[in-house]
Structure prediction request, 430 residues.
Amino acid sequence: MRRWLPVILFLFFLCSSALAAGTVYVAELSGTINPVSAGYIVRALSDAQEKAELFVLLLDTPGGLASSMDEITRAFLNSHIPIATYVYPRGARAASAGAFIMMASHIAAMSPGTHIGAAHPVAIQPIPTGDNKGAMPEEMAHKITNDAVANIRSLANLRGRNADLAERFVLESISLTETEALDSNIIDIISNNLSELLDSLDGKEIDINGERIALSTSGLNIYKRVMNPREKFLFRILDPNVAYLLMMLGILGIFFELSHPGAIFPGVVGGISLLLALYAFQILPINYAGIFLILFGIVLFIIDIKVPSYGLLSLGGIVSLLIGSFLLTSGNEEFLRISWRTILPTVIFVAAFFIFVIAAALLAQKRQVRTGMKGLIGETGYAVDDFVDGKGKVFVHGEYWHANSLDIIKKGSEVIVTDVSGMTLTVKPK
Prediction:
């Protein structure tokens, strides 16, 4: 027992040191700023308020929704622990709404090869006005821009940063490299990695709700707060490309279920996919004219199954589907638009699916009937007696039938059925 006592004491010392060292919570946002990512960051920060000495957000975003950005900045402004937002890894950016989040942080840091800025507000559902289709009305654009300018200036002034340059992020959509941002007093630190950032922050004084405190980040335990499975799933759905694919899958699934009642699986998958797409489109900025054009295109395909149009209706459906798909997210910022690399293969697949269904329906209409009374058409038999005044009896398909014919038919001659009317056949000599 004495032999193990030093080992036990050493392990106890290590555990005590780790507990005494404190914790830094690290959250990561890579992608658009939306209600799901905002909820994740706010929940991670709320958890950190009780358990950590420092909260670090690793940021790489092209921007996002203003409402979600406001939710994050509001939580940052009311935090009673220090918050460091770190644009990481190399090649990352804090664009648009990401620039506001950087300004709201107590510490703004960037890694080499990153950039910040381009925060001019963009209409999420443009209103066509005059010759400039898809642009915001001038008065509304002026109001939104002024509000964004006041917001970013307020955040920059609160954190002691260059408010005039931050204003240019909004008014002129300028972007800065990490060195330009550091030299211009937009950020505080350039660090190669998280460990280097924590070492650089050790002893740095910051203002927390009017109180100056010195950071002690040496030896902090790092705890990474990742999205839970539900958040990851919903965050993925809010990708415009994924939402678009779910909508198309939902439409196809429901169509297949209605055309083949009882299949069940396509209907279930289609219904779930369509509901998930509706959830995404409730949050994402979309143009409803695009949805109507997509639905109109599907209707044209369905009509072409019933009404022979020699391909004209299908052609109209393809054009309507293509225009509607591009129009669905037109006018949005690039990260909120559906990629043409997603649209083109999807439209081709949907068009091929309906063209296959239309071709199968046309072949079925031309195929000879094999069941019921009409199934007798094309069958052969023989005359039981001579036809008198075009009427007589025939033996067809193991049964005796009354028959009519415009031809002269003698007893025992072979006949072929050309039509069925009630219980009487129309025949001709084979």
Notes: The radius of gyration is 36 Å.
